[in-house]
Design brief:
This protein is α/β, with parallel strands linked by helices. Helix content is 42%, strand content 19%. It is elongated. The N terminus is likely disordered.
């Protein structure tokens, strides 16, 4: 019977194997599943001191995270960053607010999350209670925690009970040390036993001495009359701080989470309220003022929480770029997210503005850094270095690459950690400050130890300013994302609609349009042509008014746009004055005429650029474009003058400003007369000017029109004249006064 069942068992086993194989084909084994993703991470700023509704706001942010959590097996991380104004250290927090928030953080709802208190500077006063309520504490080396009872007139049982409750529930900080931070009457002892270290207040110490016989040493940790207050390195040695971290990159490394996952989300899962602000053209004081005013107005009126800085600038005034960068860096990232979008270029100092934003998004062929509109001197770079470093520190970003885009002497290297894919791009000075206690191998010849840093080749070229395209900027960590267009940008940040472009009012938009090369060229053409017409007609008329208007708009627009200054305006006015002097005061065409024309042309070129003489590749390109624009205008004027001289007299209205040219018969007769010209018969004859004599022109004597020249005075059209000298074809006349 048993042997008879063997075939059936074999068949059954085969069927099971087939079914299992089919299931395996439909569902890959665990070994073939994708690699586990890092846990979800959130960063919430806890503003200190805890007053008013601070605890309620923090709770609401946590509740939004809880309601939107769809994590898997990995416990999501919530980092509570304790932030206080400079010099306040968070003192003055209200006990009720702190206890309410601490109880919330130790509640069952947060059991599935890993809560981390990050203290970069201080959490003193009752803010310490909230830090104790977290599952884990990470501090910078010199940050402080404790001094909880400072400012309290008395420590009652309710307050002591709250600290005891939170410390027992969370066990991050022992109950005795928590009470020692609160009550100055207690002496807190460190008790070394055979099984470890314990901490006790006097009653608890007495109990331990009675119950245990393995006590090896008793040391006073917090003496009576003092409040417990500890540095980060001390708490680390005591085992109450899990890691020491100075900034967000080090915090992310300690938590084994990509640093970009710890950026603030001001919307906290809600809706973005976005705006778009343009930073266009050269960076000057006026444009920076407009951007700052615009952002402040929108944040006050609409509670904006997403700002897109659309940067398209060749740089300019580096101190103004740093001023705008400082303003952006000082915005509270827990209230508003700032993103720099660079579709074309952010050259030289304009990169500082991108550095000051929370994130940077670029087009693949965008240009970052490199030669810009202004060459920055060594002294100016030295003066701005500290400010750039401060902005980078505020945004937890590297300052080396940004400074290398302005300073040709700064060298940036690629450092890689042996045995991992971690790589950073830093100068030697920044690397030394960030990784002071870590080893580095200077070259690839030596075999690095696991975890040791290896310095690779420099990404900069000595003597040249660093310039990167968008894709390379992403590789070195300067840019967060690369997109093809702005529509992809909006999809990336899940913006329902394109952010409203909030710019200057219509007057500034009008100025920007006037300063564009196309409109500026048209203004020059019309202005120059109107000026020529005015100089060839008596008195002041429409031509003079139109010329003055066009040239005023040209220089005014470029002055407000930051490319023209007083120098260009003075050059133009003086040059024009010299030309007028040459025409009306000093006959001929000499020094005043040539010099004035050169000054006018120079002023027109300088008015559309931020430099006098080009010193880098960008400036040479810009200088070429400036010359091409002015040359095109001059060519247009010459061609236009020829056309108008030939056809203007036929226009119904404009024909009045120009004498009708002689017909073919008259021209032939004039040529015949001029071939054997002899005007001696005109001596002492009276006639009438047909054009203004400046000093040459035409006059009529009877039926004859003759080219004449005045004796140096300006004689208007239609005035009576008398011939005073004749030298062949040269007829000199003077005005005849009535009476």
């Amino acid at each position: 019977m048993g042997f008879a069942l063997i075939p059936l068992l074999i068949v059954f086993a085969s069927l099971v194997t087939v079914v299992h194989s089919q299931e395996a084909e439909r569902e890959p084994p665990a070994a073939q599943s994708p690699a586990a993703q890092p846990p979800a991470a959130h960063r919430i700023r806890v503003p200190l001191p805890l007053r008013d509704s601070t605890d309620r706001i923090v709770k609401q942010k946590v509740q939004r995270i809880l309601s939107g959590d769809s994590s898997g097996a990995e416990r999501p991380v919530i980092v509570f960053e304790f932030w206080s104004p400079e010099g306040s250290e968070g003192r003055g927090s209200e006990f009720e607010r702190a206890l309410s928030l601490a109880r919330f953080l130790t509640g069952p709802e947060l059991d599935r999350f890993r809560t981390v208190a990050f203290i970069p500077k201080a959490a003193t006063g009752h803010a310490a209670l909230v830090a104790i309520a977290c599952e884990e504490i990470i501090m910078s080396e010199d940050a402080i925690l404790g001094d909880a009872g400072a400012g309290e007139p008395s420590i009652g049982p309710t307050m002591r009970g709250g600290y005891a409750e939170i410390s027992r529930n969370r066990r991050t900080v022992p109950e005795a040390i928590a009470l020692g931070m609160l009550d100055p009457k207690l002496t807190i002892s460190q008790v070394t036993t055979g099984s470890g270290v314990l901490y006790a207040w006097p009653e608890e110490l007495e109990r331990l001495q009675n119950e245990r016989n393995d006590i090896q040493a008793i040391d006073t940790l917090i003496p009576a009359g003092q409040l417990g207050i500890f540095r980060g390195d001390k708490l680390r040695s005591l085992g109450m701080v899990s890691y020491l971290a100075e900034d967000i990159p080090q915090l992310a490394s300690a938590l084994q989470i990509p640093a970009d996952r710890l950026t603030f989300d001001p919307s906290m899962g809600g809706a973005w309220i976005p705006i778009q602000v343009e930073v266009d053209g050269p960076i000057v004081s006026g444009s920076v003022d407009r951007v700052i005013r615009t952002i402040q107005r929108e944040m006050d009126s609409r509670q904006v929480n997403f700002i897109c800085l659309r940067i398209n600038s060749p740089g300019g005034d580096a101190s103004e770029s740093v001023r705008l960068g400082g303003f952006l860096a000082d915005l509270d990232p827990s209230q508003v997210r700032t993103v720099a979008y660079i579709p074309e270029e952010a050259r030289s100092d304009a990169v500082v503005i991108a550095l000051a934003c929370d994130q940077t998004v670029v087009a693949g062929d965008a240009i970052l850094g490199g030669p810009g509109a202004v060459t920055i001197g060594e002294q100016e770079i030295e003066d701005l270095t500290e400010s750039v470093q401060r902005i980078a520190e505020q945004k937890s970003r590297s300052w080396s690459i940004t400074l290398a885009m302005m300073d040709p002497s700064l060298q940036v290297y690629r450092y890689t950690r042996a045995g991992s894919d971690e790589a950073v791009y830093l100068s030697a000075d920044e690397f030394a400050s960030r990784f002071a206690n870590e080893l580095v191998v200077e070259n690839d010849d030596a075999t690095p130890i696991e975890g040791e840093w290896v310095r690779g080749e420099a990404i900069t070229t000595p003597g040249k300013i660093l310039e990167l395209d968008g894709r390379r900027a992403e590789q070195v960590g300067l840019a967060r994302f690369v997109v093809n267009d702005f529509n992809e940008f909006t999809q990336l940040y899940q913006l329902e609609d394109s952010p409203d472009l909030i710019g200057p009012n219509w007057a500034f938009e009008f100025i920007d349009k006037l300063a564009s090369p196309e409109v500026a060229g048209i203004l020059l053409f019309i202005g120059a042509f109107a000026l020529m017409a005015e100089l060839s007609s008596p008195g002041l008329g429409a031509g003079g008014f139109l010329a003055a208007l066009c040239f005023t708009l040209y220089f005014w627009a470029n002055y407000l746009n930051g490319t023209a200054e007083i120098l260009e305006i003075l050059l133009f006015v003086l040059g024009l004055s010299f030309i007028v002097i040459e025409i009306f005061v000093i006959p001929g065409f000499g020094v005043f005429g040539l010099g004035g024309a050169a000054m006018v042309l120079l002023s027109l070129v300088l008015a559309v650029q931020t430099f006098v003489l080009p010193t880098n590749s960008y400036q040479y390109d810009q200088f070429g474009r400036s010359l091409a624009m002015v040359a095109s205008v001059m060519t247009g004027i010459v061609v236009g003058g020829f056309v108008l001289r030939k056809y203007l007299h036929r226009a119904p209205f404009l024909g009045r400003v120009m004498l009708m040219p002689p017909d073919d018969d008259t021209r032939e007769e004039l040529s015949r007369r001029e071939a054997i010209v002899d005007y001696d018969y005109l001596l002492d004859e009276l006639g009438t000017t047909q054009t203004q004599l400046t000093p040459s022109g035409k006059a009529r004597f009877g039926d004859e029109v003759v080219d004449v020249i005045s004796n140096g005075d300006l004689i208007r059209k239609g005035e009576s004249i008398r011939v005073i000298e004749v030298f062949g074809s040269r007829v000199v006349v003077e005005a005849v006064t009535n009476g």
